[in-house]
Design goal:
The chain has helices spanning 2-17, 21-24, 32-45, 48-58, and strands at residues 65-69, 72-73, 94-95, 102-106. It is an alpha+beta fold. The chain has a four-stranded mixed beta sheet with strand order 2-1-4-3. Strand 1 and strand 2 (72-73) form a beta hairpin. Helix 1 runs antiparallel to helix 3 (32-45).
């Protein structure tokens, strides 16, 4: 799960670096090639089943992986079924029944 979150954050950083306003805000110039290498390294460490789902959902949403907090999906802000909250054990992401994003739980 942590690798999927890191992958999503690095991909967001790649998108941010493409915008000229990123440097105008005072952030240092990062080498996109280094970030690309990090992304590829992470992709190799992630279970291919989850990576495939992640990539498929990413075609629809910029953030395919979102937290569930207090029983609410932070992608679509729909209440997650209470009966399924117990399924958040382990490192297997669940899918929101409303928006289809992958979910991880924040206590």
């Amino acid at each position: 799960m942590e690798r999927l979150i890191a992958l999503q954050d690095l991909q967001q950083l790649q998108r941010d670096l493409q915008e000229s306003s990123y440097q105008d805000l005072g952030f240092e110039k990062l080498d996109p090639a280094v970030i690309g290498e990090e992304v590829e390294g992470l992709r190799e460490e992630i279970d291919p089943r989850f990576l495939q789902r992640f990539d498929h959902i990413r075609k629809k949403y910029e953030r395919p992986l979102v937290p569930v907090r207090n029983g609410v999906c932070y992608g679509c802000f729909v209440r997650f079924p209470t009966a399924r909250l117990a399924d958040f054990e382990g490192d297997v992401p669940l899918t929101c029944e409303s928006c289809g994003r992958l979910l991880y739980r924040i206590p």
